[in-house]
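Input (structure):
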C-alpha cells in the first residue's frame, strides 16, 4: 500500500523518491513524513532503531568499546593539546571537493546506524536538506562539509584513533552529564574525580558563558569548524554552529548543558535541530548521482569560501 502526498512543484534533485506528474510523491506507508516532506525511516541500515546503543547486533560490541575508550581519554588537557596542534592547519592544502573524495576511505566505527563510506552520507544529507530548504543554500553546503573533519583518521592528518575523531561530543572541564551515551565509562576518566572539572559549571564560572568559550571533546566537529573559520568562510553563524555541534547529542537531543549557552547559541540551536534529522535519518542505501550534483556544490564552495585550496 502507498500514500500520496501533495507537494509543490519544484526543480529539485531526486532523493530516493519517485515524482509522478510533478505533484505526487509515492512513499511506503512504513515511513514517517516530517515537515518539508523528508521521509524518516523507522529503522537504520541494519533494521534497528536509530541510535540504539544497546540493541544487539554485529556492531553493538565494537560501538560500546569505542565509547569506553573515548570517555576514558577525552580529558580537558587532551583537548587543549589537540586544539593547539591542529589549529596550526599545516597538514595539507586541498580543495573541499578533494577532501570529500578522501572520505571514500573512511568508515565511522562509532556509528551504530551505517557502515558505508562517509562520502555517501555527506551527499545524502546535503541532498535531503536541498529538497526541503531550497532557498537555504548555506545549509546545503553545511550538510556537505559537516563531517569532513573525519579525515583526521587518515595518515596525512596524523592518523588519529577513532575515539579522537568520531562519536558523540560533550563539554570537558565540567561534569559529564548522564545523558551522554554510555555515561558509565566516564568514571574512569581522570577528570571525573577532579574537583576543578567535576561540578556543573567546572572551569566555566560565568553563567551563560556561551558555547564558543567551552572546550568540547576533540574530534571531527571541532576540527572542521577550525578549518572553515580559519579559511575565512562566509557561512553564517548558524552554519558554523551546526558544523561544530552536530555531534553534541546531549544538548540537541536531551537538552543538557543549556546553562552554558548564550542568546546566539539559543538562536543557532534552532537550525541545529533542523539539520539533525537530515544528518541522522538520511543514512540509507539510497545512492546519489555524484556527477549530477557536483557542479551545484562546487558553485556553493566558491560562493562561501574565498580560496579554492584550503589549509587543513
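Output (sequence):
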Amino acid at each position: 500500500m502507498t500514500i500520496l502526498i501533495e507537494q509543490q512543484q519544484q526543480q529539485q534533485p531526486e532523493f530516493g523518491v519517485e515524482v509522478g506528474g510533478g505533484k505526487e510523491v509515492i512513499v511506503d506507508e512504513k515511513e514517517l513524513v516530517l515537515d518539508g516532506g523528508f521521509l524518516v525511516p523507522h529503522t537504520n541500515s541494519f533494521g534497528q532503531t536509530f541510535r540504539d546503543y544497546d540493541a544487539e547486533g554485529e556492531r553493538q560490541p565494537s560501538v560500546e568499546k569505542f565509547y569506553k575508550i573515548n570517555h576514558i581519554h577525552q580529558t580537558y588537557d587532551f583537548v587543549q593539546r589537540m586544539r593547539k596542534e591542529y589549529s596550526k592547519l599545516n597538514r595539507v592544502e586541498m580543495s573541499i571537493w578533494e577532501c570529500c573524495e578522501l572520505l571514500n576511505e573512511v568508515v565511522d566505527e562509532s556509528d551504530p546506524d551505517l557502515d558505508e563510506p562517509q562520502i555517501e552520507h555527506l551527499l545524502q544529507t546535503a541532498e535531503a536538506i536541498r529538497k526541503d530548504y531550497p532557498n537555504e543554500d548555506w545549509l546545503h553546503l553545511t550538510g556537505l562539509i559537516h563531517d569532513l573533519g573525519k579525515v583526521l583518521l587518515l595518515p596525512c592528518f596524523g592518523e588519529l584513533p577513532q575515539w579522537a575523531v568520531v562519536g558523540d561530543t560533550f563539554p570537558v572541564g565540567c561534569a559529564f552529564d548522564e545523558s551522554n551515551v554510555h555515561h558509565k565509562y566516564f568514571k574512569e576518566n581522570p577528570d571525573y574525580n577532579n574537583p576543578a572539572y567535576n561540578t556543573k559549571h567546572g572551569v566555566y564560572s560565568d553563567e551563560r558563558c556561551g558555547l564558543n568559550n567551552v572546550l568540547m571533546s576533540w574530534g571531527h566537529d571541532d576540527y572542521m569548524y577550525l578549518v572553515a573559520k580559519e579559511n575565512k568562510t562566509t557561512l553564517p553563524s548558524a552554519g558554523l554552529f551546526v558544523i561544530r555541534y552536530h555531534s553534541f547529542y546531549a544538548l540537541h537531543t536531551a537538552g543538557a548543558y543549556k546553562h552554558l549557552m548564550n542568546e546566539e547559541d539559543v538562536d543557532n540551536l534552532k537550525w541545529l535541530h533542523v539539520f539533525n534529522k537530515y544528518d541522522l535519518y538520511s543514512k540509507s542505501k539510497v545512492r546519489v548521482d555524484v556527477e549530477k550534483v557536483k557542479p551545484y556544490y562546487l558553485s556553493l564552495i566558491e560562493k562561501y569560501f574565498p580560496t579554492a585550496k584550503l589549509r587543513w
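Notes: The two ends are 49 Å apart (CA to CA). Strands lie at 2-6, 18-20, 24-28, 32-33, 39-40, 93-94, 310-311.
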